[in-house]
UniProtKB/TrEMBL annotation:
Cofactor list: Mo-molybdopterin
Moybdenum cofactor oxidoreductase dimerisation domain residues: 253-381
BP GO terms, sorted: sulfur compound metabolic process
Region (Disordered) location: 1-15
Keywords, ordered alphabetically: Metal-binding, Molybdenum, NAD, Oxidoreductase
GO cellular component terms listed in the entry, alphabetical order: mitochondrion
Entry protein name: Sulfite oxidase
EC number(s) from the headed UniProt entry: 1.8.3.1
A molecular function (GO) term: heme binding
CDD domains given in the database record: eukary_SO_Moco
Root EC class: oxidoreductase
Amino acid sequence: SDYAEEPPRHPALRINSKEPFNAEPHRSALVSSYITPVDFFYKRNHGPIPKVDDISRYSVSISGLINKHIQLSMDDIRMLPKYNVTATLQCAGNKRTAMSKVRKVRGVGWDVSALGNATWGGAKLSDVLELVGIHKLSSVTSLGGKHVEFVSVDRCKEEKGGPYKASIPLKQATDPDADVLLAYEMNGETINRDHGYPLRVVVPGVIGARSVKWLDSINIIKEECQGFFMQKDYKMFPPTVDWDNINWSTRRPQMDFPVQSAICTLEDVDVIKEGKARIAGYAVSGGGRGIERVDISVDGGKTWVEAHRCQKSNVPYVSDGAQSDKWAWVLFEATLDIPPNAEIVAKAVDSAANIQPEKVEDIWNLRGILNTSWHRIKIQNTS
Ligand code: MTE
Ligand code: MO
């Protein structure tokens, strides 16, 4: 079958779909380290995992609305300055299962773990694009190119057997501070097949769908990518739109991730002893907006206390060079008195003072994306 050569995976992952392989760790695994180990990093695929056997023959082509078209080998890419960027990648479908409980949505079900925080190592896209004569901070090329399209080598049914693809604006691609990478390392090791070997795009602060894995070519184009995942998926619709009245062209492709958080030390319905309990989880926002604070309630949102940030662990391989964590999650914790039959709630606030929406009903959308509503935990039978 097409899936005869899938890589081995950690048995602890919860499989949401086997072919294509979609899996997430248990939520409790997320808060055990600031950097998510590769084995426990969620895996989100739309087709079989491609196999690049001969790395010496692998290359990425750059073409489109530019005067110079080139092919880059892995050696060419490794020759460029290497950056390590710690960034959280989150699938737009994270927490979809909870949204589906309000009203059914279409898509792979996910609990709260369709995200992970990794240190990605690779070349900056802004440096790569200079090789074809595009200057830093350009918003248009001399031939009218305004978007940078990433095309993969994998094949998926949504593209009718064609490759997975996506694009970002040229302005973001050529901005060194946007930290868009062509990454060949994940957590200090060669990126593995599941996560895009030999080369993937990492677009920090943006929904995972734009971070194209197994990169094959880069095209400089006039309009944004017309692929399925840009035009017929990963768009945010209001709750009034359903499958019988949807008009995809009325909305833009979703890019930045809104502010999000989840409690990871408890199940959605859980039983704990009365008294003090440690509540921990993650909070993250898109667009480089860091997390300002996380509020926790034990009475369903009537009163709140502020959670603490956990210390970042010292990871030796990120110690070389300037580091920034504006793209990364924060892990939070609070030790609180839990009253009988408590309802524990988390909500995060980002650096632009954006706050998570209270109710999932208000942000329900037919594709079940961006469920960033308050995370609620129901405690039963506290005694
Ligand atoms: N790139 C390719 N080529 N094929 C894919 O199916 N899935 C996207 C993105 N890049 C995908 C892809 C989606 S929807 C997400 S959320 C992330 O990859 C998941 O990355 P991960 O599997 O490394 O966690
Ligand atoms: Mo995704």
